[in-house]
Amino acid sequence: MPETAGESPRRSFRAWRSRRPFWGGLLLALGGGEILLSEKASLKVVMHIGMQGLAGYLLPGLMTLLGLLILFNPAQRLFYSITGVLLALGTWVTSNLGGFFIGLLLGVVGSCLAFGWLPDQEPRLSRRKRRRARALAKEAETTAV
Q: Rounded to whole angstroms, what are the CA distances from 9 to 14, 26, 101, 105, 139?
């Protein structure tokens, strides 16, 4: 999407972020990344890799991929989020108790956020705009009386 002359990069990013389940995809990807990092911990810290090691790397890798897919293909967010929560719960068995619970919780919360995101919702007004609207309504009410 080309940037217009008066539009700042921050505003462009906020507009892009508002059209997709950003926080859900980000948390799911971070959960997968955290679990992958917990696999690289020293042997004194690692509890077990599980199932010959392949599933211990495959599930968090897929979680990271699904988080990115939620960000860049939000039309399929329902399938990606259901698959993501199942993979996150599967890491409980395969990857150090889901990356010592942190990656597991990030994955489940991110998947739930992505599942619950509604694309047709109007953007929320900031506090400043809500206060300004209330002040204008109160001012109009006092001048009308």
A: 9, 19, 36, 32, 36
**Which H, E and C letters describe 17-69, residue by residue?**
HHCCCHHHHHHHHHHHHHHHHHHCCCCCCCCCCCHHHHHHHHHHHHHHHHHHH
- What is the rounded distance in angstroms from the CA atom of residue 39 to the CA atom of residue 117? 31
Q: How many CA atoms lie within 13 A of 46 on its CB side?
A: 16
Is there a contact between 56 and 75 (Cβ–Cβ < 8 Å)? no
Q: Determine the Cα angle at 57 with ends 56 and 58, to 5°.
A: 100
Span 77-125, pLDDT tens digits: 999 999 999 999 998 888 877 778 999 999 999 999 999 998 887 777 7
70, 24 contact by CB (below 8 A) = yes
By CB atoms closer than 10 A (0-12, 13-18, 19+), residue 141 is exposed
CA dihedral 48, 79, 73, 98 (to 10 degrees): -20
d(CA 12, CA 112): 26
Classify residue 142 as exposed, middle or buried by CB count within 10 Å of its CB (0-12, 13-18, 19+): exposed
